[in-house]
């Protein structure tokens, strides 16, 4: 079958997709976007987390056909997504009493094409930079999924408590870091975000 | 002109000092950021499962569904006839006389021949144009098994009528083992434990069980084999030791080593689980047969069968002490289950026995460690390597002894703590700092985390955040029935390969001028598995060569062996090799400078010269020339091997011998809260103090210590591969059923780093990766015992052990 969807702002079509193929497989093996990782393919580790119409999902558990007509953001598009976050849904946050991005808010975001060679595209999103600075990357296999999940957390809840961070990232396994540096990274990104707002 | 002396190795044992200034930014001692960090956060870093090649096929392994059976027949016809299938291979298709491989003993068939010895053993291979096609074709292969009785423990292995797991063994251990189903046996006897026991006022003994742990690295076993025009093959793969793989792969392929060209592709964690081969030979066989590139990627289910695990162990310990707390003697017997193939079992036995006493002074010991052959999953290397199991038992014993003596458990440990100069049970003297008592003091002195942190004040009084309670979001308790406990442990781990192994590493360093700037390139075969070796190599090169620009060349087999990324050895040994090669490059640059510019300034001939900030400077700080001026279009290129001090084998009867290179020490204090009603444990804090000798990269050091601590926490409360004792089948090969700690299960891990230099090591450093995995587990167990008053003699502690249900 053919699947038409938008990936990181670019309309894409995948041909000859077997009905049982996962979104993860199509992204990795057909779209040439291996950033989403194949650590368990059982929906247990979160390494393949992408946003599907703004909602974080384990792409290994999404049948490729389910992505038809929808918007997917992978770690490869995270920096661009972060840059255009304000356009998508200004002013949301858990201060309003809800933690988590509403589907409605998420869907207002319009992905834009990214030119990989432009200076803008080279910049990292705050959460990506914070992961590097805090030493939250070791082998890095869990990193893409954690980044997508953490970015969504910070979007929904700009000043999360440690318990908020732990709760939000509890679906992402990391075997190297002991999570301490990952907590540091999310705190760092939140603090930098706050500074920018001021 | 490029210099490429493949010189003989340097003699070991010379203390290496920092001969260079450390003024170049990004040198050792700084928390320099990872060179691969940006690629890893943008998703561009190419892990082994990300490899892609035009016209590529997918390989799949068919594995045995039974643990022990003769293979009566294999019918591949239907599989081969499946559209999209290019090849189906079995044992009969192996091209070379050499059909087996193995780290030390070549007892592992590349594909099962005649019989299978464990559940999940590879039997056949398929290559197809889609991974699902390969899987479905493999399911059409018909195998008839004639099941055999399974050997699952010591009793069944050594029973008079026991089936031999490996008939006709010819390896060099067979001569000294009491039974052919025992891979290796190492006794260590020193003093007279029986006589010493007579002097003891208190004797405590215990039986301990350590469950089978999995490395559970996230990046699955995977790689890409590309056939080359000369009949050889190129293999891009995630591994811990390229040259060890090469040595095992080439003979089975029937190729000379130079026709198997290996390049490290991105490694998603290892922890010992990539020391043995997984898909390497299989992918190469399929590529050579089909003439096409073949990619293999295990899914998580297969990954649990695709690598060896940590040896489960049964340990019996006896300690005695005088009434003032001095240890009189120790006797122990450690039975490790090595599973169906030897893998690293002999070396694990060596470690478990020689480190069985832990970081304590005990002059009279009687130790025995063995590893079994069984039909359980093969076990081999995992972080801590034999020392972990022993630490679990001897630390439980220390608490038991303290209770019997009515002493503080930390004081008892400190009273018996080894120090520099202590003689180990092997007769080896510890000739570097051994701050065991100090590490314990540090974790004990740390303020305890506040009680009942789940209670938080709000406007209306207090409220409960269930997320901070045992059971967390499951909302199982609001604090009633929750009790706190505190426990301590300390451990002793060797660094590097022991028992006389020639544990060398090779580094090639090149210095040249690019765009007017000096640039150093470091080329080693070191497997970067996430630990940060690439960061440290660049730091060493900056420190030694005084340049800011350092390129790390991809690791491959076009440079000499770097040894394994295991045993906490890479920063020591390959770091040492990089340092050594950099020193040679520096000398060569100074020689060139003297030759070209020596007449312009007398300091060239008379002063001590350093490289700093891209310049040649005197030790007084006067710049003589830039490196760019010295080199111009010349390049200096050096490849050298480097060795640490030699070690020797342990005597097979007495265990005596200077078997280890260096030691690593870590202590933990665990604070837990236990819901005694449901048996749920929440670890509140797991503080660690570790001596690292010299922190080359403090940020990475913390990451290693926290990661190691968390793996120890995992085995304490949740991680275990369950094997059915009747069928030897694995019952939980998934992340649904094999649990590793999530961020909710993992507490804050404050780290206290001590830097007492080991004068024998480069920069005084100590290998750090494994030690925190040792003491973390017994500290958590001790804390749960403290909270509940239960004995708890096995890992992991499960709810039923706490509730007694």
Detailed description of the structure:
Chain A has 198 residues and is of the alpha+beta class. Chain A has 9 helices and 5 strands. In chain A, a hairpin with a 2-residue loop joins strand 1 and strand 2. Chain B has 805 residues and is of the alpha+beta class. In chain B, 25% of the residues lie in helices and 25% in strands. Chain B has 19 helices and 33 strands. In chain B, the strands form 9 sheets. Chain B has a 7-stranded mixed β-sheet, with helices on both faces. Chain B has a 6-stranded mixed β-sheet with strand order 9-18-17-16-10-33. In chain B, a hairpin with a 5-residue loop joins strand 16 and strand 17. The chains are: A alpha+beta (198), B alpha+beta (805).
Secondary-structure topology with pairs:
The complex is a heterodimer of chains A (198) and B (805).
Chain A: E1 3-7, E2 10-14, H1 23-30, E3 49-52, E4 55-58, E5 71-73, H2 78-83, H3 85-88, H4 103-107, H5 119-122, H6 126-134, H7 143-156, H8 162-168, H9 180-197
Parallel strand pairs in A: 1-5
Antiparallel strand pairs in A: 1-2, 3-4, 3-5
Helix pairs in contact in A: 6-9
Chain B: H1 37-42, E1 57-63, E2 69-75, H2 77-80, E3 85-89, E4 100-101, E5 108-109, E6 115-116, E7 122-128, H3 131-139, E8 142-147, H4 154-158, E9 182-190, H5 193-198, E10 202-210, E11 222-227, E12 233-237, H6 242-253, E13 260-264, H7 280-290, E14 294-297, H8 300-306, E15 309-310, E16 313-321, E17 327-337, H9 345-354, E18 364-372, E19 379-380, H10 387-405, H11 409-416, H12 436-445, E20 455-458, E21 461-464, E22 482-495, E23 504-514, E24 517-523, H13 533-545, E25 549-552, H14 570-597, H15 603-606, E26 609-612, E27 615-618, E28 623-626, H16 627-631, E29 636-643, E30 662-675, E31 680-691, H17 698-717, E32 751-754, H18 771-788, E33 794-795, H19 799-803
Parallel strand pairs in B: 1-14, 10-33, 12-13, 15-19, 17-18, 24-25, 31-32
Antiparallel strand pairs in B: 1-7, 2-6, 2-8, 3-7, 4-5, 9-18, 10-16, 11-12, 11-14, 16-17, 20-21, 22-30, 23-24, 23-29, 26-27, 27-28, 30-31
Helix pairs in contact in B: 6-7, 9-10, 10-18, 11-12, 13-14, 17-18
């Amino acid at each position: 079958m053919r699947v038409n969807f938008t990936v990181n702002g670019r309309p894409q079509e995948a041909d000859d997709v077997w009905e049982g193929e996962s979104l993860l497989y199509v992204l990795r093996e057909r779209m040439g976007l291996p950033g989403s990782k194949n650590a368990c393919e059982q929906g247990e580790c979160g390494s393949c987390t992408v946003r599907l119409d703004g909602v974080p999902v384990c792409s290994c558990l999404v049948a490729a056909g389910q992505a038809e007509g929808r918007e997917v953001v992978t770690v490869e598009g995270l920096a661009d997504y972060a840059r255009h976050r304000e356009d998508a849904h200004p002013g949301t946050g858990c201060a309003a009493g809800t933690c988590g991005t509403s589907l409605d808010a998420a869907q207002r975001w319009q992905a834009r094409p990214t030119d990989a060679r432009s200076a803008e595209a080279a910049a990292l999103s705050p959460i990506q930079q914070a992961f590097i600075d805090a030493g939250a990357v070791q082998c890095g296999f869990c990193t893409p999924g954690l980044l997508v999940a953490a970015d969504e957390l910070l979007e929904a809840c700009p000043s999360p408590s440690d318990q908020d961070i732990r709760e939000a990232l509890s679906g992402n396994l990391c075997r190297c870091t002991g999570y301490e540096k990952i907590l540091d990274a999310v705190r760092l990104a939140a603090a930098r975000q706050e500074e920018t707002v001021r | 002109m490029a210099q490429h002396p493949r010189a003989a190795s340097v003699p070991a044992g010379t203390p290496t000092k920092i001969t260079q200034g450390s003024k170049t930014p990004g040198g050792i001692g700084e928390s320099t950021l990872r060179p691969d960090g940006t690629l890893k956060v943008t998703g561009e870093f190419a892990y082994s499962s990300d490899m892609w090649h035009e016209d590529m096929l997918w390989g799949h392994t068919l594995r045995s569904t039974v643990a022990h059976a003769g293979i009566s027949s294999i019918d591949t016809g239907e599989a081969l006839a499946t559209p999209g299938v290019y090849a189906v291979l079995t044992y009969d298709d192996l091209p070379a006389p050499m059909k087996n491989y193995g780290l030390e003993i070549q007892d592992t068939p590349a594909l099962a021949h005649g019989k299978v010895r464990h559940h999940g053993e590879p039997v056949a291979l398929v290559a197809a144009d889609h991974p699902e096609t390969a899987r479905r074709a493999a399911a059409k292969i018909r195998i008839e098994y004639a099941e055999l009785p399974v050997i699952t423990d010591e009793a069944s292995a050594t029973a008079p009528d026991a089936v031999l797991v490996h008939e006709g063994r010819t390896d060099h251990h067979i001569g000294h083992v009491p039974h052919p189903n025992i891979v290796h046996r190492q006794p260590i006897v020193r003093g007279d434990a029986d006589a010493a026991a007579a002097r003891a006022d208190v004797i405590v003994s215990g039986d301990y069980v350590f469950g089978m742990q999995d490395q559970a690295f996230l990046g699955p076993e995977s790689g890409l084999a590309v056939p080359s025009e000369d009949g050889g093959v190129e293999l891009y793969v995630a591994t811990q030791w390229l040259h060890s793989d090469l040595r095992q792969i080439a003979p089975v392929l029937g190729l000379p080593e130079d026709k198997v060209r290996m390049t490290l592709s991105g490694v998603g964690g290892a922890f010992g689980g990539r020391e043995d081969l997984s898909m390497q030979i299989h992918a190469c066989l399929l590529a050579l047969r089909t003439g096409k590139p073949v990619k293999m990627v295990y899914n998580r289910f297969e990954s649990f069968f695709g690598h060896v695990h940590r040896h489960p162990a049964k340990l019996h310990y006896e300690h005695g002490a005088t009434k003032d707390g001095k240890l009189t003697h120790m006797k122990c017997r450690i039975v490790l289950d090595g599973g169906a193939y030897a893998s690293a079992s002999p070396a694990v036995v060596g470690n478990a026995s020689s480190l069985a006493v832990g970081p304590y002074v005990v002059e009279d010991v009687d130790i025995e460690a063995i590893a079994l052959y069984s039909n359980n999953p093969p076990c081999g290397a995992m972080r801590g390597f034999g020392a972990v199991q022993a630490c679990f038992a001897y630390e439980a014993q220390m608490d038991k002894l303290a209770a019997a003596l009515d002493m503080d458990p930390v004081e008892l440990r400190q009273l018996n703590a080894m120090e520099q100069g202590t003689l180990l049970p092997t007769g080896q003297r510890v000739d570097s700092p051994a701050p065991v008592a100090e590490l314990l003091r540090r974790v004990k002195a740390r303020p305890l985390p506040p009680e009942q942190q789940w209670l938080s004040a709000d406007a209306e009084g207090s409220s409960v955040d269930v997320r901070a309670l045992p059971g967390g979001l499951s909302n199982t308790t609001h604090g009633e029935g929750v009790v706190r406990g505190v426990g301590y442990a300390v451990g002793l781990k060797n660094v590097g390969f022991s028992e006389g192994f020639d544990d060398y590493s090779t580094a090639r360093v090149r210095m040249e001028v690019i765009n007017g700037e000096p640039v150093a390139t470091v080329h080693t075969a070191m497997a970067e598995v996430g630990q940060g070796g690439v960061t440290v190599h660049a730091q060493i090169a900056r420190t030694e060569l005084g340049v800011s620009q350092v390129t790390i060349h991809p690791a491959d087999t076009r440079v000499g062996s770097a040894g394994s990324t295991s045993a906490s050895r890479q920063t020591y040994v390959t770091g040492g090799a990089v340092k050594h090669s950099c020193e040679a490059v520096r000398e060569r640059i100074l020689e060139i400078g003297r030759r070209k510019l020596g007449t312009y300034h007398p300091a060239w001939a008379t002063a001590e010269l350093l490289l700093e900030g891209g310049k040649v400077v005197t030790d007084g700080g006067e710049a003589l020339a830039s490196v760019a001026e010295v080199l111009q279009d010349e390049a200096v290129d050096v490849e050298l091997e480097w060795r640490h001090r030699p070690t020797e084998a342990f005597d097979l009867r007495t265990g005596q011998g200077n078997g280890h290179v260096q030691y690593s020490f870590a202590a933990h204090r665990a604070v837990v809260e236990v819901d005694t009603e449901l048996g749920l444990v929440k670890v509140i804090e797991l503080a660690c103090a570790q001596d690292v000798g010299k922190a080359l990269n403090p940020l990475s050091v913390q990451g290693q210590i926290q990661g190691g601590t968390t793996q120890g926490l995992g085995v304490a409360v949740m991680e275990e591969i369950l094997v059915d004792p009747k069928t030897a089948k694995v019952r939980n090969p998934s992340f649904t059923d094999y649990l590793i700690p999530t961020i909710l299960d993992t507490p804050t891990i404050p780290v206290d780093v001590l830097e007492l230099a080991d004068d024998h090591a480069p920069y005084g450093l100590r290998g750090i990766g494994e030690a925190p995995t040792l003491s973390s587990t017994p500290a958590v167990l001790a804390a749960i015992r403290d909270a509940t008053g239960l004995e708890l003699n096995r890992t992991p502690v499960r709810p039923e052990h706490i509730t007694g249900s």
